[in-house]
Amino acid sequence: MQGRLSPKPRERVQAFPKDSWREEFSRARQYRFHCIELIFDVLYLEDNPLASEVGRRELVSLAEENEIRLHSICADYFMERPLSAERHENVERAKELLHMAHEIGCPVVEFPFVDASSLLPDGRIESAAGAIEELADSARELGIGLALETDLPPVVFRDFLDRFPRETVGANLDLGNSASLGYDPFAECRAFGSRIVNVHVKDRPLGGGTVPLTTGDVDFASAFRALAEHGYRGDFILQTAPDDDYLAAARRYREMVEEWIERYLSGESDGSGA
Are 39 and 16 in contact (CB under 8 A)? Predict the structure, then answer.
């Protein structure tokens, strides 16, 4: 995840690394990562290369130069400006982001419906569903997949996903967020495993915030077994806790994920991303 190969942000757990996003590409190559998931958020929006044509060209150039895939964009922007609120304005901004993704050859855009954009309050599910239906049409035309991350219980999330075309709308599975909500990875994979587009590797205790891997309540063995049983072959994105020694932490976490892939997925995935 963009920002994990940079000094930790002072403002929040995760933010676009405005001062070092370029350097992250060479660091990713040096530390043997295959992809970078980009962040599109409210903070530092004017500094984000996604927001300008020149910046998008530079992103593509850096990715090609360092042999790093741009496979997904995490649209944190819509956590603070939910698609279920001020729908027309925010949907139009989301469509703009889909065009940005298309321009840089990025096939997946994630829309998080958690925290301030949670779908759990009454009325939000229907409003969000209408917004996603609008986005799905644009996404299909551009060849972009939408990956939804929600805090809905597994069966409720499955039913929500079933409203949308499978070829365009799928799920992002965030292991840490699921653990913080008390959700079981086998139950999640049974409910919507075939629609998981990518996985965020993160750890959180029940009801708590992001912590270093294996210090929270994620049962990584169960999570990777569940993903293996459902034939998951996508990316594993390190959305891990910020660390003062961020490069050493990135290398350590990569090795941990590689070991879980080798042990539980038996080579079914092509590796881990960050």
Answer: yes
Q: Provide the β-strand partners of residue 201.
A: 238
Please give the average per-residue pLDDT across 60-78, as a whole number. 97
Q: Which CATH number is associated with domain 23-265?
A: 3.20.20.150
| Residue 118 CB neighbours (<10 A) | 17
Q: What 3-state DSSP class applies to 48?
A: coil
Report the distance separating Cα 255 and Cα 267, nearest Å: 15
Q: What percent of the chain has pLDDT over 90?
A: 89
Nearest partner of 170 among 155, 190, 142, 150, judged by Cα: 150
CA-CA distance, 215 to 202, in Å (whole number)? 10
CA pseudo-torsion sign 98, 233, 237, 105: negative
Q: Tell me the two tokens of residue 134.
A: 């609008």
Which residues are registered as beta bridge partners of 200? Answer: 174, 237
Given the structure tokens 């090795």, which residue do they identify? Answer: 255
The per-residue pLDDT for range 168-202, each reduced to its tens digit, is 999 999 999 999 999 999 999 999 999 999 999 99
Q: Which two tokens stand for residue 229?
A: 């049983």
Distance (Å, whole) CA 213 – CA 191: 25
Identify the CA nearest to 49 among candidates 91, 17, 9: 17
Q: Give the phi and the psi of residue 58 in degrees, each rounded to 5.
A: -65, -40
In the block, residue with structure tokens 């992103």: 59
